[in-house]
Specification:
With 226 residues, the chain is mostly helical. 66% of the residues lie in helices and 8% in strands. A hairpin with a 2-residue loop joins strand 3 and strand 4. The mean pLDDT is 81. InterPro entries: Phage_head_morphogenesis_dom.
């Protein structure tokens, strides 16, 4: 996407004083590129989201199996209706987010291009602006990926615990964020009901479910770690 934007601008961006014929050509080319990439995102987003959801599920289940093995249990997970429901919820949310990252980047590119044309910026100045736009999108994508990984882990763990009859878990604060939620810090080490979550800040939540929450949890297995 970034390479396509750069290539288009090198071909169509006005080299001197912006003339109507030049800006008309730029407008047409930019509109065509936006349509092309929005259509591609519509096709690619579900595929990317499915890969992400499956990788998250596999990673979470391996970690969960390791924790159970350390407690003396050997469990082989199978695809269940409950797990599929959890994965579909993750999938739907991620498709929308993937589309939004691309769409917002393209919108920023379009705004930067016309701002540069109107201000009389040359190609070098516009390129610097576009680097900033790309950096914003890249940081947002990294944040969303981390945040959605935590949400996926929370949903899959909850599903598997319920299938195994594990009703309680212990909240574990990550101590990783610069500005932790006081309620999440206070919840560290406390038990919560797996089905409901922990009641924090006026609502029921699971560890890792809130935006930028990196908290995790440990299963309570009766007779072993109670």
């Amino acid at each position: 996407m970034r390479a396509d934007v750069q290539g288009l601008l090198e071909r169509h961006y006005p080299k001197g004083i912006a003339q109507d014929s030049l800006t008309d050509g730029l407008q047409a080319a930019l509109s065509a590129l936006l349509r092309y990439w929005l259509a591609r995102l519509d096709k690619l987003a579900p595929q990317i989201a499915e890969v992400f959801a499956n990788q998250s599920a596999n990673h979470t289940e391996r970690a969960f199996q390791t924790a159970l093995r350390e407690a003396g249990f050997t469990v082989r997970f199978r695809a269940t209706a409950q797990q599929q429901t959890a994965l579909q919820a993750i999938l739907g949310g991620n498709v929308s987010l993937i589309r939004s990252i691309g769409q917002q980047y393209l919108n920023r590119v379009e705004e930067s291009v016309w701002r540069s044309v109107n201000a009389g910026y040359n190609m070098a100045q516009l390129t610097r602006e576009l680097r900033k736009d790309y950096g914003i999108s890249e940081r947002r994508a990294a944040f969303i990926a981390r945040d959605q990984t935590n949400k996926a882990k929370a949903a899959i763990e909850k599903s598997r615990r319920q299938e195994l009859g594990i009703t309680e878990a212990i909240w574990m604060h990550s101590h990783a964020g610069k500005e932790p939620r006081p309620s999440h810090v206070a919840a560290n080490g406390k038990r919560f009901n797996v089905s409901k979550g922990m009641y924090l800040d006026g609502k029921w939540v699971q560890p890792g479910e809130e935006i930028n929450c990196r908290c995790t949890s440990r299963s309570v297995i009766k007779g072993f770690n109670t």
